[in-house]
Records
---
Amino acid sequence: MSALPGWVLPTAMFVVPVLVAVVVNRLFRHRRTNPNFVLAWFVAVCWIFAVVVILRQVR
């Protein structure tokens, strides 16, 4: 198995849930996605990966 570049997992963790939320909102709820949700998800993903990088450096 080839190693993935370091940017693939954080990008996927951010993009996939946002795209799912947009699709669900468009198809079932017929309204816009809340921009606060996108910002909150972006911040959460950044924090998760910051902790992962710090823990890798400590180990």
---
Amino acid sequence: METTQNTAPTSGSNGHYEFTINYAGRELDCIVDKDDDILNVKMENIEAKLQVEPDGTVHQIGGNTLPESNIEFIKKEVLGHEV
């Protein structure tokens, strides 16, 4: 997965993030709104809610089920962690 466009606040900060993600074989615009330890993800007609744990791990707590590879990519884009 490659980012083709990326607009974001300082890495790991609360705020609004936009980037392109590969989902189900298609490139989709992904919008993530980070509010403390919650990531609200929107891609086309897909919405998901992720939680960031104190140790830096991210897991899904609601919405449409995302593949683990997409969750790791979102984590890298928003939190700046290496995957």
